[in-house]
From TrEMBL:
Source organism superkingdom: Eukaryota
Name of the protein described by the UniProt record: CCN family member 5
Gene Ontology terms, MF aspect: heparin binding; integrin binding
UniProt-listed InterPro entries: CCN, Growth_fac_rcpt_cys_sf, IGFBP-like, Insulin_GF-bd_Cys-rich_CS, TSP1_CCN, TSP1_rpt, TSP1_rpt_sf, VWF_dom
Main location: secreted
Gene designation per UniProt: Wisp2
UniProt entry tagged with the keyword Secreted: yes
UniProt subcellular location: Secreted
């Protein structure tokens, strides 16, 4: 059957466009089923046939329907293993990946969970840093805090007032903090918040951490 299909669909010599097609993100350029012209590989859940092949680098093959032989198929995993599609790329179950330098994710049972790699603390104004601001630093992924004084005299007066009220203590920092709040999400990833001075400068600041009470139920996959 395959030689007959090749004889009907594949023509020699090949006549291909001068400019290869521009593929969507996550879809590589591959040879068509005739091994003739460059085409965009079909991704998970997309229609496929003899000419329009699936992305084999992602472990996808074309599954044909049980109807007539002329009907097309759908790209799916060769071993029916569940995976995750993110930004056009398919990740296998259990695979760890980073969509960006700020988060790290793990594919699990058809869905994925992510954790931030950057600290998500909130810095409160203090006499020595009345105008904290987060900025991008060249060569670094995460934003960093800097202190900007809109008025140097105001900063100097604030320091003088702070020293007049109470001298600077040279004793070790006495740790203090509230309890962690309830998780912000009933399923999936959420945040818990507390106020604490357990940091390098012994300052009160709002701190966040990830929490998950239970995984969210996976939505059924929808294929065209």
């Amino acid at each position: 059957l395959l030689p007959q299909v090749c004889a009907q669909l594949c023509r020699r010599p090949c006549y291909c466009p001068w400019v290869p097609p521009r593929c969507p993100r996550g879809s590589p350029l591959v040879l068509d089923g005739c091994g003739c012209c460059k085409i965009c590989a079909r991704r998970l859940g997309e229609p496929c046939d003899f000419l329009h092949v699936c992305d084999q680098s992602q472990g996808l093959i074309c599954y044909y329907s049980s109807a007539s032989a002329g009907t097309g198929g759908t790209c799916n995993f060769e071993d029916d293993e569940e995976g995750c599609e993110v930004n056009g790329r398919v990740y296998r179950d259990g695979e760890v990946f980073q969509p960006s330098c700020k988060i790290q994710c793990r594919c699990f049972d058809g869905s994925f969970n992510c954790i931030p790699l950057c600290q998500e603390d909130v810095r409160l104004p203090t006499p020595d840093c009345p105008y904290p601001r987060r900025v991008e630093v060249p060569g670094k992924c995460c934003l960093e805090w800097i202190c900007e004084a809109q008025d140097r005299h105001l900063l100097r007066d604030a320091w003088a007032a702070a020293r007049a009220v109470s001298p600077v203590l040279r004793q070790p920092c006495q740790e203090w903090g509230t309890e962690w709040s309830a998780c912000s999400a009933t399923c999936g990833l959420g945040f818990a918040i507390r106020v604490s001075n357990q940091n390098r400068y012994c300052r009160l600041e709002t701190q966040r951490r990830l929490c998950m009470l239970r995984p969210c139920p996976a939505l059924p996959a929808v294929f065209p």
